[in-house]
Design a protein that fits this description.
The protein is α/β, with parallel strands linked by helices. It has 20 helices and 24 strands. The strands form 4 sheets. An 8-stranded parallel β-sheet has the order 8-15-16-17-18-19-20-21. It has a 6-stranded mixed β-sheet with strand order 3-2-7-22-23-24, covered by helices on one side. It has a 6-stranded mixed β-sheet with strand order 9-10-11-12-14-13.
């Protein structure tokens, strides 16, 4: 399928495009045409700009909803026919209504968990991290683990003089928390920092060898600094699991239920009605299924299967496949794999060594052979394959293995809609392959502007400019681009990612290679219909088309016309899921 186009139509729609409405002539000599009666709507929104993101419908003024489906869109006069005595009417008063934002790549339970632990995203330096940990230790029992996430050394105003690879050693952390193990995840999720109590609990010492695909970062004297890159973090999993095992199954389920609701609150507050979860275990999917059956999933989830062996997936994937039926809140039809790590943690797989750490070109976390076997299993069971790749070599390896797998199995790759998650750094030679092969670039625009100030330090100016999120070139080759935030790596703030998409404005006031900025219409597509297409759900969501889900976000400003510098001030006023108001600003 070629890139989905969204053409804005001037003015309101005529009644001719309305389902069940007739139209009269303004010519006095023409015979009167009676307006057929229609069933009253349950909900009507009117008096604003309704961006349908449907090229056949364009912009409208009002929308009618029955149950969980859209009934009609049109002018205020058109939709007036759907207002009955029991119809709930929401006056938009000039506000902007659009299809609900679809988070194209995030970690749902990770978002919920991030609300239960230390939030380190806004710390300015290592001293602030240590201070927050010290405060948590004061409230904790001896032996209780302290968890946090969100620190990023490249965003600090300074690092300690004795830092190793730009990251502190854990000495000061040991001083404030000698008896409480501490685990602090990097913002990217591709590294974590531990104190000695945590390392000891896991049996890690200075002689512990690096695992495949990971690094135990060491000081010049060979001592472990506390930083664990990529798969080295997993060396702590057993110790953390033992600690979490103190909870009964009932207590753990309650913790998970709280995470689901915390994640939902954040999503709905930011106008997100659907969430593409980039990797959950079969156990977590079972939990989601239980919640859906109870009616306790507040946002729609599209879940990618993660952390299962090829043998297990081959055996059980058929019984986990779930496609949208009715007012569905849980879809499972894809698999998540990961070929490399993150650029911030020096784990993204590059064609050439890192500029600031020439001893490495990144890490391959999962082998090409293993992912190719997953590709065969995905085709066999009718699943989509979505592979994490951030570095330019990582992207090339995935494109190559997709192409080989399709040739071996004699299948049409474009029909499969396989994705490369992140697609952050792409060698110019590989850019046209996305459009040609039909591989979807599942990007997070906010990563470019959030990371932009330090990306050249990792890659050098020339390589950064030629490879970093080349959206304009991707669009020009017919590729489909989707959008998201990778929450909790970044906040689940669709407005911020939309602004990053159209401005590429960094926090330092400079633009990150602005020649690749999206148009307003393209950015809106990436967050709605393109995300729906990338999940095989374009027939039920992604546009305000009659017959689709009534998933609607109402904003304070028109994303398509407001001045660019005012875009970040746009507020989410209402979030409607399946015709139900799930969030209202100020309430």
């Amino acid at each position: 399928m070629s890139k989905i186009r969204y053409t804005l139509l001037l003015g309101s729609l005529t009644a001719l495009i309305m389902s069940g409405c007739g139209g009269g002539s303004e010519d006095a000599a023409a015979p009167e045409v009676a307006t057929p009666s229609v069933a009253p709507a349950d909900l009507v929104l009117r008096g604003g700009t309704v961006a349908t993101v449907d090229p056949e419908l364009g912009n409208a003024e009002a929308i009618a909803v029955n149950g969980y489906l859209i009934t009609a869109v049109g002018s205020n006069d058109d939709i007036a026919a759907y207002i009955g005595p029991e119809t709930e009417v929401i006056e938009l008063n000039g506000r902007f209504a659009m299809p609900g934002f679809i988070e194209g790549h995030g970690h749902y339970m990770g978002l919920g968990r991030s609300k239960q632990i230390l939030d380190l995203r806004n710390v300015q330096n290592w001293a602030e991290v240590v201070s927050m940990v010290a405060g948590a230790v004061d409230k904790a029992q001896p032996g209780e683990w302290i968890f946090g996430r969100g620190w990023h050394q490249d965003k600090w105003d300074s690092v300690p003089d004795d830092a190793v690879d730009g990251v502190p050693r854990n000495d000061t952390l040991n001083a404030v928390s000698p008896d409480n193990p501490v685990s602090l995840g990097h913002a990217s999720g591709h590294a974590a920092f531990f104190n000695d109590a945590a390392l000891e609990a896991a049996g890690i010492d200075d002689e512990t060898p690096d695992p495949a695909g990971g690094t135990i970062v060491r000081a010049p004297d060979g001592r472990a600094t506390g930083l664990m890159r990529e798969t080295a973090q997993r060396l702590l999993n057993e110790a953390i699991g033992i600690y979490q095992g103190r909870l009964t199954p009932e207590e753990m389920e309650q913790v998970d239920r709280e995470r689901v609701m915390l994640a939902a609150d954040e999503a709905l507050r930011h106008g997100v009605t659907s969430f593409q979860d980039a990797g959950s275990t079969f156990e977590t999917i079972d939990f989601f299924k239980k919640l859906e059956e109870e009616g306790n999933l507040p946002v729609r989830l599209y879940v990618m299967v993660r952390r299962a062996s090829n043998e297990m997936m081959d055996e059980v994937l058929p019984q986990y496949k779930m496609l949208p039926e009715g007012n569905d809140f849980l879809t499972v039809r894809s698999i998540k794999r990961q070929i490399d790590g993150a650029l911030g943690a020096h784990g993204a797989l590059l064609l050439e060594p890192y500029e600031d750490l020439p001893s490495t070109s990144g890490l391959m976390l999962e082998t090409v052979e293993d992912i190719e076997r997953t590709a065969e299993i995905a085709v066999k069971h009718g699943y989509q394959l979505n592979t994490h790749a951030i570095g330019d070599r990582g992207v090339r390896e995935v494109l190559d293995l997709y192409e080989r797998a399709w040739a071996t199995m004699n299948v049409s790759g474009k029909d499969l809609r396989w994705r490369i998650e992140h697609s952050q750094h792409i060698d110019p030679v590989d850019v046209p392959r996305f459009g040609k092969l039909g591989v979807i670039a599942a990007v997070q625009a906010i990563h470019g502007t959030s990371d932009g100030p330090w990306i050249p330090t990792r890659l050098g100016d020339e390589r950064a400019k030629s490879t970093s999120q080349p959206w304009r070139d991707l669009f020009n080759t017919g590729a489909i681009i989707t959008n998201g935030t990778d929450v909790p790596v970044e906040p689940i703030d669709a407005i911020s990612s939309y602004y990053a998409s159209v401005s590429r404005m960094m926090v330092n006031g400079e633009r990150f290679y602005p020649e690749h900025a999206m148009t307003r219409e393209e950015a809106l597509q990436t967050y709605t219909i393109n995300n729906a297409y990338a999940a095989f759900e374009e027939n039920v969501k992604g546009s305000l088309t009659p017959g689709k889900y009534a998933d609607i976000t109402v904003l304070s400003q028109d994303l398509l016309t407001v001045e660019e510098d005012r875009l970040p001030n746009t507020a989410v006023e209402l979030t409607i899921v399946g015709g139900e108001v799930k969030y209202k600003r100020g309430m």
